[in-house]
Amino acid sequence: MGAYTESTSDTKTCEVYTSAPYYAVGCYVCNNPYVYYAIEKGNPYSTKFEQGDWFKLVAHGIDEQGTETGTVEYYLADYRSENADDWKLNDTWEWVDLSELGQIASIYFTMESSDTGDYGINTPTYFCLDKLTVSTEPSSVEESVVAQAKVYYDRSNGTVRVESAQLVEAAVYNMSGTLVMKQLVEGSGAIDMSAYPAGVYVVRCGGYSTKIVK
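Request: output the structure for the sequence above.
Response:
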């Protein structure tokens, strides 16, 4: 996508097509580092966010006939509260439930920001996307597993954060397949990785697994 457009209307940031109509389940999203620091500190093209500012990602579902099935919004930055303690600037992977989009043939994403000018959005329109999940049924086993187990690495304190709707065993393996540690988690829990060397690890939680980079 170019740096500028001749309109302030929404422009597709990316679009994903499915091989056949499927039911949308969800995906993980995170701020791009360039965007994160543009919001936190500002740059020559965009302003530092202050109270009242916001930056959001909008997912659009499209069916076989090319008709929009709905939208789902997620705020990558939300400074609208008058209380600064409530401000949010996304810095880690977060699960976004896309089931409201229903049966889709494609999903495309647009981005909106409070910081706009004559040429559209000043905030850089980039984001990170992972594990976009669809299903053959509106409520499937795959959807249940993904929704009930959420894993991400919190670099600020060197822990793997695990959130699960059910009691699960979370296990961490190094890239050689050696078990590093494991623990039971129900609700939310933290696995302390601060004593382990930097590298790539695999976290397995119930039927879900993901890689983290320490």
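The longest helix spans residues 33-41.
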